[in-house]
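Re-run with default settings, no changes from the original entry. Doing this only to confirm the output is reproducible before filing.
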Amino acid sequence: MKTEMKIGGHTIAITNPDKILFPQDKITKLEVIEYYKNIASVMVPHMEDRAVTMLRFPNGINGESFYQKDIPDYFPSWIKRVEIKKSGGVLHHVVCQNAATLVYLANQVCLTPHIWLSRIDKINIPDRLIFDLDPSDHDFKPVRSTAFIIKELLEDLGLHPFVMTTGSRGLHVVIPLKRQYDFDWVRAFARDIAEYLVRQDPKSLTIATLKKKRGKRLFIDTIRNSYAATGVAPYAIRAHPGAPVATPVEWDEIKAQKFTSQRYTIKTVFKRLKAEGDAWKGIDKHTQSLTVARKKLDSLIK
């Protein structure tokens, strides 16, 4: 069964609209596509001018999934793409500039788009810094407490952090950056903060990349601040029962004891947006320099 969706001057043929992507919740492919169509006005501004890596689930969340960076030849010419040099060659990434592109990706069962931390006009210079807080289990308490510890430290350094649920188990603490330094510089800054925090509480926190070395400690992941690495796009669906979405939130929201990273889903996030609006609207008006913060951090470490 096929159907069509007209959006932004483009007609997209929707294939297999009745396919069940979330078996436990009976959520169909068409419901996922309609979610992305309806969220596009809020989501696309967070994605535009950024290279996209597609996380695709052709047979639903219980089937095999794969990351796809290179845009397939059959994608229509109206979808923007960018050529990026990688070790070993060149890739052509999708760039999501409009609602039609987001819907087209959803029809390709790109359930979870991931985006670069830099924009395509200055691909080597990030404008986002991310601390990805990854707990060892589903207990959200250490995620919450660590997020506020990072927030306090960043504010002491003169920075203003933002926060987003990942839609999985953790949180992203994010700093919008002035485009001054390359990925290596920014990653070193983030790692130094993570190492400092781990020294303060080595029993609860870790920067060990291997899971077997983390034990029950929370992993502060700063590796995403690397060239060609990505972060989950705001408002992207995650492959978990209930179809939770990565949602920018206010800091006060995560204080609630029953709050979890899967608090908002494709069926509930619109109610939050209607009541509270997009917590990251205008985030680019708050870009920050790390120059002074780097000096303060060096003094603190010494």
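The mean pLDDT is 96. DSSP finds six helices and 16 strands in the chain.
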